[in-house]
Amino acid sequence: MVLSLVSRQWKSIPAALFFGTRPFRSQAALDALSRASEEKIPNLVLYNYPSFSGAFSALFAHLYHSRLNLPCLILPFSSVEPLRVDDFLVEGLEICYLLDFVGPKGFALKLSQFMNRVIVFDHRKSSLPKIPPAEDSPENLTFNIDVEKSSSTSVYNYFSTKLAEKKLPCGEVKNLVNHEIRDRLEMVLKYMEDGDLRSWSLLDIKAFNIGLDEWRSKLNCITNPYLFDQLLEIDSMSLIAKGKSYISSRQDAANKLLDKTFKVRLGKGFYGECLGVSADGNADLSDEIGKALSIRSAAAGLRISAQMKKEAVLILKKTL
To answer: 237: closest CA among 194, 193, 207, 192?
Structure first.
């Protein structure tokens, strides 16, 4: 379902209503907003942080504005001590994109009172209640909520189409991404979407997510000025290979412990027996050990498995 809300009503809210005591903010973000005001930068992009879909969406906004030489300020937006509406009451800002998030209830609506246009992208069903009724939405506020497509894919399509529609001298057509990396990038988006929508249908999706997760600490474009170049280099096959290696190493470590399984009588046998293993100092392998013990317990005709640490049962898993 794609939801785009555009109405033709305008309600004026005095800017003074947005001002208040400012709590802690990222000084770097505030400084960037101050410089944007001095330089009269009209385009503002806020992306969900630390979200991969948000970061890739910001990448596509960056590519679009770069291709057309349009000045643009891109900032991460975190739900932890987030930037507030009054932080954006700076001279020169005209268009604001909220990528992979809707923001607190009323956030986008308030931005639309002093921005020429506010455009929102998200894919989460939980965002739907935050969207104001059509009759309360001004014509310069647009919500693009597609619960069947990840935000990064929607934003990629949006800016690709928007760029293709631009009339350039000599009939030149600019592409958002170069042909040599397009297929690789779109495969990354496909895997990300599988995780964002909780489909888990693609082969090796678990390994992909494990490999991708190491990038999470690098998704702040303020502290990592090379973020967008790095995102363009990400390859799904490399991430899957890293994920598989990680999974394999954990399973190998768990297997060494599983060679020392023993039977445990529960309640002096009243509750039956299970296989156990001493996993002292290896609690981080509980998932791998628990699953393997369940399988072995079932094969031995036992109903549950146990992981032991210092003679205490940590995990009991029924094998039906």
So the answer is: 207
Q: Quick one: average pLDDT of 244-269?
A: 83
pTM of the predicted model as reported, rounded to 2 decimal places: 0.81
Coil/strand/helix, residue 148? coil
pLDDT in tens, 153-185: 999 999 999 999 887 766 667 899 998 899 999
Given CA atoms 20, 54, 154, 175 in this order, what sign does their dihedral have?
Answer: positive
pLDDT band at 258 (very low <50, low <70, confident <90, very high): confident
The residue that leads in pLDDT, 98 or 299, is 98
Q: What is the pLDDT of residues 3-25, one digit of tens each?
A: 333 332 333 333 333 333 333 36
Instruction: Tally Cβ neighbours within 10 Å of residue 141.
Output: 23
- Concatenated DSSP letters for 62-88? HHHHHHTT--EEEEEE-SSS---GGGG
CA–CA distance, 70 with 58 (Å, rounded to integer): 15
Task: Identify the DSSP state of 147.
Answer: T
Taking the CA atoms of 215, 220, 224 and 229 in sequence, report the sign of the dihedral they define.
positive
72-77 sheet: strands from edge to edge: 2-4, 141-146, 117-122, 95-99, 43-48, 72-77
Look at residue 306 and tell me whether its pLDDT is greater than 60: no
Q: What are phi and psi of 198, to 5 degrees?
A: 60, 35
Domain 2-9+25-245: state its class: alpha beta
C-beta separation of 205 from 196 below 8 A: no
Rounded CA separation 264/86 (Å): 62
pLDDT at 133: 87
Q: Is 257 exposed, middle or buried (0-12, 13-18, 19+ CB in 10 A)?
A: buried
Q: Tokens representing 39?
A: 């330089």
Domain with CATH 3.90.1640 in the chain: 2-9+25-245
